Amino acid sequence: MPSLSVLVILEGIFTQATYGPMVQGLLAGHGGPALVYYLDVSLPETLRRHATKPIAGHVDGPTVASWYEPHDLLGAPGEVVLGEELSEDAMVERLLADLAAL
């Protein structure tokens, strides 16, 4: 039987206290290769990026700021921290390179 590959991308503000155990449980039950990235972005940069999204008209800056937890890694095995100094293109290149190496 051919192997099944699954690609899951979660994007958002996922606090470790709320989502860390869920992500760790998903990874433990997966059994295959997994890549986990944490985008380490300051609050000002988070708000700047949020303002460019379609949802910005529905979720205001103070609400986003209330969700913000600095350096709140999920604690998943192999979690890679990407800094805000990386361009979008550099992040995509990194992800594609890591996927190709699996």
Automatic annotation (TrEMBL):
The lineage of its organism: Bacteria, Bacillati, Actinomycetota, Actinomycetes, Micrococcales. This is Uncharacterized protein.
